[in-house]
């Protein structure tokens, strides 16, 4: 490829072929609008879309995709076939497992770890010391629910049209929107489960 040659690649996001190039370290395709530090490794079958930003010594593995406007911090590791949603933020040194899915606008803090096959809902915020659980196919939108317990024991919920609600706010919002219909009953059961889940993990931590 000559210096002035223009190359294009279809990232499969509906835009068709757009100006792009193969990253020198690994050979993965990078949108020309994106910033990828030269020290970043991008596997030849990984893709970096739109205005994504990937900082020094991060690693993007086989088949992973980094969405438009996403930010990948220094020394972060993105596993094989992992999907990072548009506008998501992955902190410095964070680890995202193989086949994991991080929703649009989600935040994974510095040093946090998301395991193989795990899914984090749109907009959810998880720091290194947080406990969290995700439950798929819930509510009227059949979407992903992510509940996060902070070190101070407060719990925040993200799902569908309910974004960053405390557990009490979530219960009130569900009651106002769904009352006692099937979705209201479903969410009520999920709140019981979420409370029991975090209580069980508190007991587990106490046994160490």
Shape estimate: elongated
Considering the protein shown, what is the CATH homologous superfamily of the largest domain? Hexapeptide repeat proteins
Mean pLDDT: 94
DSSP strand count: 23
The proportion of strand residues reads 25-35%
Give me the CATH fold name of the largest domain: UDP N-Acetylglucosamine Acyltransferase, domain 1
Largest sheet features: 8 strands, mixed
Order of helices and strands: EEEEEEEEEEEEEEEEEEEEEEEHH
**Order of strands side by side in the largest beta sheet?**
1-2-3-6-9-12-15-18
CATH architecture of the largest domain: 3 Solenoid
Ranges with pLDDT <50 over ≥5 residues? Answer: none
What Rg, in angstroms, do the CA atoms define? 19 Å
Instruction: Calculate the terminal CA-CA distance, rounded to whole Å.
Output: 58 Å
Q: Total number of helical segments?
A: 2
- The level of helicity is 10-25%
Q: Into how many domains do the coordinates divide? A: 2
What structural class do helix, strand and pairing data support?
alpha/beta
Which CATH first-tier class of the largest domain would you pick? Answer: Mainly Beta
Chain-wise SSE layout:
Layout: E1 8-10, E2 17-22, E3 29-31, E4 35-36, E5 41-42, E6 47-48, E7 53-54, E8 59-60, E9 65-66, E10 71-72, E11 77-78, E12 83-84, E13 89-90, E14 95-96, E15 101-102, E16 107-108, E17 113-114, E18 119-120, E19 125-126, E20 131-138, E21 143-149, E22 155-159, E23 162-166, H1 167-178, H2 182-206
Parallel strand pairs: 3-6, 4-7, 5-8, 6-9, 7-10, 8-11, 9-12, 10-13, 11-14, 12-15, 13-16, 14-17, 15-18, 16-19
Antiparallel strand pairs: 1-2, 2-3, 20-21, 21-22, 22-23
Helix pairs in contact: 1-2
């Amino acid at each position: 490829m000559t210096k002035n040659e223009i190359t294009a690649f279809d990232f499969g996001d509906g835009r068709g072929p757009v100006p792009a190039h193969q990253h020198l370290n690994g050979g993965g395709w990078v949108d020309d609008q994106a910033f990828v530090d030269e020290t970043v490794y991008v596997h030849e079958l990984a893709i970096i879309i739109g205005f994504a930003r990937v900082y020094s010594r991060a690693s993007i593995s086989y088949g992973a995709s980094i969405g438009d406007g996403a930010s990948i911090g220094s020394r972060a590791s993105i596993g094989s076939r992992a999907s990072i949603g548009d506008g998501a933020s992955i902190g410095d040194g964070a680890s995202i497992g193989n086949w994991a899915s991080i929703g649009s606008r989600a935040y994974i803090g510095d040093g946090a770890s998301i395991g193989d096959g795990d899914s984090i809902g749109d907009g959810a915020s998880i720091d290194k010391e947080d406990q969290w659980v995700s439950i798929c196919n819930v509510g009227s939108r059949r979407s992903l629910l992510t509940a996060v317990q902070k070190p101070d024991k407060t719990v925040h919920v993200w799902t569908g049209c309910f974004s960053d609600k405390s557990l009490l706010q979530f219960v009130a919002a569900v009651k106002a929107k769904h009352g006692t219909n099937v979705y209201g009953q479903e969410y009520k059961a999920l709140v019981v489960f979420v409370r029991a889940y975090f209580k069980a993990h508190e007991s587990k931590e106490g046994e160490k």
